[in-house]
Specification:
single chain; globular
Length: 82
C-alpha cells in the first residue's frame, strides 16, 4: 500500500517553499524600485534571469525554481481542480 500522506506533505512543503521564494523576489524587486509584476512576467516569458535583480539574492532564488513548476503553481492558484 502506498503512503499518500508523505507525498502530500512533500507537495505542501514545496508549495510553501515556492511561495517564500516568490515573496522574497517580489520584495527585492520592489525595494530596488522595479515593478515586480512586469519583471516577473518578463522572466517567465523569456527565462532571462537579468529581469530579476541580484539584490537580496533574488536572482539566485528565482533560478532555483523551474519555470514550468512555477507556472503550474500559478495556474493552480487560479483554476479550480477538476
Amino acid at each position: 500500500m502506498e503512503n499518500f500522506g508523505t507525498k502530500k506533505f512533500t507537495a505542501i512543503n514545496r508549495e510553501t517553499e515556492l511561495r517564500a521564494i516568490m515573496e522574497a523576489v517580489y520584495k527585492a524587486l520592489q525595494t530596488k524600485g522595479y515593478d515586480p509584476i512586469n519583471q516577473l512576467v518578463g522572466y517567465l516569458i523569456t527565462e532571462d534571469p537579468t529581469y530579476i535583480t541580484g539584490h537580496d539574492n533574488a536572482r539566485t532564488l528565482i533560478t532555483q525554481v523551474e519555470r514550468d513548476e512555477l507556472l503550474r503553481e500559478l495556474l493552480r492558484s487560479y483554476l479550480p481542480d477538476r
